[in-house]
Amino acid sequence: MSDFITHDHSDDGIDRRGFLKCMAWAGTGMLWTIKGGVPMSAALGRNLLGGGGDIAANDLFFVQISDSHIGFNKAANQDVTATLRESIDRINALPKQPAFLLHTGDITQLSAPNEFDTAQQLITSARTTSGRTFFVPGEHDVIGDAGAKYLQHYGKGTQGGGWYSFDHQGVHFIALVNVLDLKPGGLGNLGREQLEWLERDVKRLSSSTPIVVFAHVPLWAVYPEWGWGTDDGALALTYLRRFGSVTVLNGHIHQVVQKIEGNVRFHTAMSTAFPQPAPGTAPSPGPLTVPAEQLRNFLGVTSVTIVPKQHSLALVDSTLSGVAGVQAAHAMDDMKRGTEKRAARVVPGEIGIDNFSFTPRELSIAVGETVTWRNHDDVPHQIVSADKKFTPSSVLDTGQSYQRTFDRAGTFPYFCSLHPTMTGTVVVRG
Ligand SMILES: [Cu+2]
Questions:
Q1: Where in the chain is the domain with CATH 3.60.21.10?
Q2: Which stretches of 5-125 are DSSP H helices?
Q3: Which end of the chain offers a freer environment for a tag, N or C, measured as fewer CB atoms within 10 Å?
Q4: Which fold has domain 16-337?
Q5: CATH code 2.60.40.420 region(s) in the chain
Q6: CA–centroid distance, residue 365 to ligand 1 (Å)
């Protein structure tokens, strides 16, 4: 994690403690300015979203929301609809109306039609000067149908799997889709068709055009061990290298992490639904249950102000509670103690899904025997044959199982379509 630049207040290196402290700072509001390629930061004395701020009339101001997971109802947050509504209330109470919203995916939990409808109803209640929200899908929005339902809602005017670009006040916005066609063991993926489109899309632009890229999974390697990165993200960034100001906004990891590399600034947003552990601080990623009174310290939105002519840009992360970060950091320490690795439940002939892994990783059976996969995690998983030798399971929610009888000898690798770093093998003896 040593290459995560958050800001320069920390003299303790970026160990886990420092990292948490930085996250905490981000929660209270952090103003960044980029002038002549040199990022400068200053902590805000107040929460910009709650207390107003200095946004000039000609600045481009918009708000990023992410990971609303409508339909999620486990311990980490039993009312994600309420916290999305609160987030939108906060946006509607801003001293200046944003031009539009960006939603960086995982709008829904299971791609269910009613989840899309609920999300849409709430999000259209956000007041913006353009009346628009621009979306990209998360892996939860494309479950089971390669994004067909997502595209019904949000696909108008997009290319391929839903990618597109638009211009606003001299800034070029690029919406990328990196949650389709995930490969076993892999990370987020853009694919060749989209990369070629991207190369063409930016060709006509002058290098002084400010660029904002947004996608669900981080485009850079935040923590590949948990699948927090994009396989071909680096390739996408080569097309953007010549631009003086590039901002990359992502979601997926449900916490604020920033990095600056040359002229590219990376930033992930909080979720409006539930937090996730900091990279490497828990056995696995996934919804993190914090004390109820702390939850709103971990949920929030990101406001972005761009002064195009000056290449000056401010990102401010605001929690729903508006609470200062020290408390958030302490809560993180507290709940970390509560995330001991759960023992995997081993049942003969069964493959248990615990802590984002399959147990046993390799199961050996005789021809004609039946295998049962059972999900003990509080997030959904889906079993998919790596070489398409058997039909995928439906999405397995907590406690649900999938059975399959193997009539032929052979080796059958499989993975989870939602978390492709989860892999396993069934060996069928002849
Ligand atoms: Cu999974």
A1: 16-337
A2: 16-28, 48-51, 80-92, 113-123
A3: C
A4: Purple Acid Phosphatase; chain A, domain 2 (3.60.21)
A5: 350-429
A6: 23
CA pair distance 318, 321, nearest whole angstrom: 8
Phi-psi region of 134 (alpha: psi -120 to 50; beta: other; left: phi over 0): beta
Which residues are within 8 A (CB) of 415 and not within 5 positions of it... i.e. 6 or more apart? 184, 185, 384, 386, 422, 423, 424
pLDDT, tens digit, 9 for 90 and up, residues 100-116: 999 999 999 999 999 99
Site of tokens 């147990």: 359
| DSSP sequence for 240-274 | TTT-S-EEEEE-SSSS--EEEETTEEEEE--BSS-
The predicted pLDDT at position 327 comes to: 46
CATH number, span 350-429: 2.60.40.420
Distance from residue 72's CA to the centre of ligand 1 (Å): 15
Residue-wise pLDDT for 167-206, tens only, equals: 999 999 999 999 998 989 999 999 999 999 999 999 999 9
Q: What is the pTM of this model?
A: 0.86
Q: Sign of torsion, CA 133 138 141 145? A: positive
* Residue 423 alpha carbon to ligand 1 centre in Å: 9
Ligand 1 centre distance from Cα of residue 355 (Å): 10
